[in-house]
Design a protein that fits this description.
With 303 residues, the chain is α/β, with parallel strands linked by helices. The chain has 10 helices and 10 strands. The strands form 4 sheets. Strands 1-2-3 form a 3-stranded parallel β-sheet. Strands 4-5-8 form a 3-stranded antiparallel β-sheet. The longest helix is centred in the first third of the chain and has 16 residues. Zinc ion binds next to loops.
């Protein structure tokens, strides 16, 4: 039986099937799972498979098998973004009706020319905002963020404020290769599917600002956020599928789960050595304390 309190919390994990899970994705999976389960809530699984160039054949199956090996139990059916295109289409249509969308003719190369020298991502300079350059056709669709500010709550970092015009610029909603952009799809899914809290890596903090703004514009409920620390190597470089610095081993899930527990700064325990995966979750769900998490980037390998 589910009482009102238990059905109130809904969280999710949303991997992109571009390869096997790495340490950072396991942190996001475990952090969102522990938050949901320690509060008697639901934990949904969504596969962000919208981006054909990034989707690797077989990766979805391997992610699902890996999550099972690590003892995760998701609620409800797995959701696939590739099957939600009508919802993204409707949201884009709504934003166009509201007058927030314009076509952009710029190529990636043209925008890169105006980028900052240190490789920082530059806000779109607004070339096509008022009109397409003469003789050029629209390739993508952008959100006009003129004058937009957004505020959202993060339970580790506190209330966040962003000046979107200055800090994000007009971002893409529909790409030149006819793919709905990540921000649009994520905002529609998290909002329409009633997520009350989104727990994920701090590398997505600026994405959360854009997505929260889209949810506001679409009159969707905005979840609360938790941005977990990013896993970096000992030189401070972000761990990713490319660096392969901390692969996770589905054959030995407990080792990785204990590393994640330690990475999230949770209370060490004598009960854990020799335990099974299900012992681990039983223990961890009971002892999980979000407020112990240190949001600063850190290395999963102790110094
Ligand atoms: Zn443009």
């Amino acid at each position: 039986m589910v009482n009102a309190d238990q059905s109130a919390y809904r969280g999710r994990f949303a991997p992109t099937p571009s390869g096997p899970l790495h340490f950072g994705s396991l942190v996001a999976a475990a952090g969102s799972y522990l938050e949901a389960k320690s509060r008697g809530g639901e934990w949904r699984l969504r596969i962000d498979d919208l981006d054909p160039p990034r989707v690797v054949p077989g990766a979805t199956e391997s992610i699902l098998r890996c999550l099972e090996a690590f003892g995760f139990h998701w609620d409800g059916p797995v959701q696939y973004q590739s099957r939600r295109l009508p919802a993204y289409h409707a949201a884009l249509h709504r934003l166009r009706q509201l007058g927030f969308v314009y076509p952009c003719a710029c190529t990636r190369k043209q925008i890169a020319r105006s980028a900052l020298p240190d490789g920082e991502e530059q806000a779109y300079p607004g070339t096509c905002r008022d009109a397409l350059p003469l003789g050029r056709a629209g390739r993508s669709l952008r959100l006009n963020v003129r004058g937009m500010h957004v505020a959202f709550d993060d339970r580790l970092l506190g209330r966040q404020y962003r000046d979107l015009e200055r800090e994000a610029g007009d971002f893409i909603l529909y790409r030149a290769d006819r793919v709905y952009a990540f921000h649009l799809a994520s905002a529609v899914d998290d909002g329409e599917l009633g997520m009350t809290e989104v727990v994920r890596g701090a590398d997505l903090l600026e994405s959360s600002a854009r997505q929260a703004q889209l949810m506001h514009l679409l009159a969707l409920p905005v979840p609360r956020y938790v941005h977990l620390p990013i896993a970096v190597d000992q030189r401070g470089k972000k761990l990713s599928k490319q660096t392969k610095a901390a692969p996770i081993d589905a054959e030995r899930p407990l080792i990785s789960l204990q590393a994640v527990w330690c990475f999230l700064n949770q209370a060490p325990s004598d009960e854990l050595p020799g335990a099974t995966v299900s012992d681990f979750w039983h223990y961890a769900i009971k002892r999980w304390d979000l407020q112990r998490v240190d949001p600063r980037p850190r290395s999963p390998v102790p110094d």
